[in-house]
Design a protein that fits this description.
Shape: globular
Radius of gyration: 19 Å
Family: Belongs to the ABC-2 integral membrane protein family.
Protein name: Transport permease protein
Number of helices: 11
Keywords: Cell membrane, Membrane, Transmembrane, Transmembrane helix, Transport
Pfam families: ABC2_membrane
Number of strands: 0
Order of helices and strands: HHHHHHHHHHH
Subcellular location: Cell membrane; Membrane
Largest sheet: none
Number of domains: 1
Helix content: over 70%
Length: about 260
């Protein structure tokens, strides 16, 4: 009996996902960078700047959600570089001559990036606990944290797939990820937004990273969430859908070139 396109999408996607996973462990530099940079940022802010920043709670408890988002964003940005490398390096053309769906290339990068982010985020949590992080989240709160982080990672993964498909060189792909990686620094990740100049506070309060961080902070340490949870789902649910559609459209266009 002839297999359906869905069957081949799943099996071929798993094949390319295995390829991405092997790259993570055979070339661990990207994983180490995805862990090392956020850990360095967290330790620096907690031990150097933490004593001077008043947040109403222990600074380590305040800063951990922002560090986790920074970690996940950096890990996802590596996908754009990998996708561009595959496109300009000839892998895409090679897949055309093999019994694999070329679209499985995107699925493999998204899956591999997600697993890399899960590993890096877990390490960040463990390091945070070692330096004094004290979450008081219950079981449902932890489920909410996992769900929101998964939504955030998948939405960024597909966004960076789209960027990787557009760019013509690894260098430009790397540069194109910078605006998204910079957003956590202009949010409530490291300092309360009310301490910022009025014009900057307006941007910080109304960009997608702030409601995400405030929701994670509320779930982890019990600060008010208000409507930030719904805003987070709206922002990153929309980003996931739009990025997925755009990635598919760009990929189809590249197939015809």
């Amino acid at each position: 009996m002839r297999k359906s396109n869905l069957y081949w999408s799943i099996t071929d996607g798993w094949t390319m996902s295995q390829r991405s996973l092997k790259h993570i462990f055979r070339e661990p530099e990207s994983l180490l960078m995805a862990i090392g940079l956020p850990v360095a940022i967290m330790v620096m802010f907690v031990y150097i700047f933490g004593g001077a920043i008043q947040t109403g709670t222990d600074y380590v408890n305040y800063v951990v959600p922002g560090v986790i988002i920074t970690c996940a964003g950096f890990g996802s940005s590596l996908i754009a570089i990998s996708v561009t490398q595959d496109m300009v390096g000839g892998l895409f053309e090679r897949l055309r001559s093999m019994p694999l769906l070329p679209s499985s290339l995107m699925i493999g990068h998204v899956t591999g990036g997600f697993i890399r982010n899960v590993i890096a985020t877990t390490v960040i949590f463990l390091v945070a606990l070692l330096i004094g992080f004290q979450p008081n989240a219950g079981f449902l709160d932890w489920l909410g944290v996992i769900g929101l982080l998964s939504l955030f990672m998948l939405s960024l993964n597909w966004l960076f797939v789209a960027i990787g498909l557009i760019m013509k060189s690894v260098e430009t792909a790397n540069a194109a990820t910078f605006p998204m990686l910079f957003l956590p620094y202009i949010s409530s990740a490291f300092v309360p937004t009310e301490t910022m100049p009025v014009w900057l506070q307006a941007f910080a309060d109304n960009q997608p990273m702030t409601p995400l961080i405030e929701t994670l902070r509320g779930l982890l340490i019990g600060t008010p969430i208000d409507n930030n949870g719904w805003l987070t789902i709206f922002w990153f649910g929309s980003l996931l859908i739009i990025s997925f559609i755009i990635s598919g459209a760009i990929f189809k266009r590249r197939k015809k070139e």
